[in-house]
Amino acid sequence: MKSKLKLGLTFFITLFFFSGAFAQPDSKKDKIDALRVAFISNKVNFSTQESEFFWPLYKEMNDKLTNNRKTFRKQFNNNTNYNFTTDKEAETYLVAELNLKQKEIEIYKEYYDKFKKIVPIKKIAAFRRAEEDFKKEIIKRIKEN
User: Fold this and answer.
1) Residue 46: exposure state from Cβ atoms within 10 A (0-12, 13-18, ≥19)
2) Among the listed residues 134, 117, 111, the one whose alpha carbon sits nearest the alpha carbon of residue 58
3) Long-range contacts: 31-34, Cβ < 8 Å, 24+?
4) Could you report the average pLDDT of every consecutive run of 10 residues in the chain (145 residues)?
5) What angle, rounded to 10 degrees, do the helices at 87-116 and 121-144 form?
6) Helix (H) or strand (E) holding 3
């Protein structure tokens, strides 16, 4: 009984932190984010205190990742047909893509160091597994529809 109460409390605290962060409360992205939080919280079993600190930090990390991806897409959005006119243009794209991946790795490292200060390492590992399982679950649901 305590674990159900704890899970419910964790879920509502998490939703509280995310509720002010979204401009359109009924958007698909918001629904997916809420499902992600609930799915991961259920798998990892964060304490109330861990949730209070973890989820805002996680959102901060995701915002940085999203901003980096948006910057990359803006730079290369003009070439949507994948036909590069020169080798130099193709190489510029590939180097920028590698730089994007490198920056993503740096962000992950930065935030995993921050996560370790507030959550036990076993829960961080469980979180990563749950995050990947969530992605698989979303893909599975998309395929079913």
Assistant:
1) buried
2) 111
3) 32/138
4) 48 45 64 91 92 94 95 79 84 94 97 96 96 94 89
5) 130
6) helix 2-19
